[in-house]
Write a structure and sequence with these properties.
With 250 residues, chain A is mainly α. Chain A contains ten helices and no strands. Chain A has one domain. Chain B is elongated, with a radius of gyration of 25 Å. The chains are: A mainly alpha (250), B alpha/beta (335). At the A-B interface, α1 and α4 of A face α2, β6 and α3 of B.
Amino acid sequence: MRNMAVMIELEVRRLRHDWAELYGRAIQPLLWLGVFGPIMSTIRAIPTGGVPYIDFITPGVLLQSVTFVSIHYGINIVWERESGILKKLLVIPGPRYSIVIGRAMASGLRAIFQSLIILPVALLIGVRFVPNPLYFVLAIVVIFLISGGFASFSILIASFMKTRERFMGIGQSLSFPLLFTSNALYPLSIMPPPLQFIARLNPMSYVVNAVRGLTITGDISNLAVDLLAVGIFDVAMFVAASISFKRVIE
Amino acid sequence: MQNADFAVDVQGLSKVYDGKVRALDGVDLKIEAGNVFALLGPNGAGKTTLMRILTTQIKPSSGKASVFGCDVVRGESSVRRLVSYVPQEIGVWTDITGYENLLIYSKLYAIPSDKRRKTIDEVLGIVGLWDVANSIVKTYSGGMIRRLELASAMLTSPKIMFLDEPTIGLDPSARKAVWERLWSFRKERGTTIFYNTHYMDEADQYSDMIGIINRGRVVTVGTAESLKDSIGKDMIVFSLQNHSAADIPMERITALDSVYGASVEGSELSVLVRDTESSLPSTVKVLFEAGVAIEKISVAKPTLDQVFASYAGPQAEKRDGVRQVRAVRRLIRRG
């Protein structure tokens, strides 16, 4: 437990020395909200259940950026293997999974900061959020958890990659399929059936649904299912990443 | 028997990577507590693999190893409480300050919060990084980074420190600085130090015992002196005044006890002896009696380089196929 907390503290300290990266990573989501959203909303072709299109995609855009950050986290692990840090961490007392999960949680922290940059801008653009602080806090928790899950997923993939460059390629190509095969930009109902099937297996759909319910529509009738899906995904990824971590070591 | 009297006790240790590459092939090694032990060996000889097994990072394929009596497999967590480790590559985060690195490590090592500051200040003092503690590590020189890594390994006052090529890539003055700091830490705390290196002069100067590893086996262990003695033949070179080879009583010289051989080249007579101290007087006497005038005498003692070459060097170069070298490197890098 302590090791996990220390990993999160490490992340805060790194962020404090380099805010530029956070801002840099916020550019892409802001393009979605500032350019893609307004243009798409003029055609009114997508059934959003009565909310403006920009509002509809805000949770998805937010989560896409969070996913991107989390998946990039695997690069950190590959980098730390190339450097000596990982080897050193292996020699500290305490269970090894605490390092894996700690790193994944640290990614969640980064995700929260990322959200805190994007949200005010969304407000400025005119997105109307549900004015309920409790819902809002819950949404942040969901974002934190899914980021941890995706970071573990990324560590899992990283354990199969030998170099950072190779991982970069894979990492880049993962976040968009996750976005497009989910309900982030359009509702499930307008997807072709095979894609709907994939979307139902995509953890992204459940988080987007949860965060959208909590922050935009206020409809949380599906929240329990969504949270369960996120929980299952997280646990599965934590376990898989901890096991695959052995590959990273040897 | 695994013996707690030894800081490191290794018996018949082997490690095979992926069922193919035999990185260690039956290593036997004992290191006494409080010693500074240098493990010398060519690239790919198994130095890093041995160190990673002793620090519980990877498991041996067969054989036994213990650190202060704790088995590295069964007593994994006890071993980790005794050791600290500095990898060959950079083992600190470069995007935070030196102080923050030590703070993070001190928390990971579970140093109580009321002692943390004092401990960090202490090790910063030992490695001489006081003035730059609050700068980002990226701005440090190679030698400073190394000293920061040593500092992080000193935090827990470990019983034994494992250092993998502690001065690789450093210039001579940075190397000297690293060793001076390390030496004073060791003197103060009595820490056992086990390090890998391929710098002979370093092993010669900064060690109590030296081991030579080649092709996965520790081929010899001893003090720098005893190793030199083991191949130890001194070469005495006499520069002679105006003498032809015929004047030199070669039979009488080679007949001397403790003389292994002699040869003449131009006006130089080279005599190979067991040790100069006892052979020089008798050799000079023979030359004197034969009326050979000596202009100058010089003595060449064996160096650790020669020791190394005789135990490891030529074999390693001849026998290692490129493929094997590549495979080993790849595995080591991946680890």
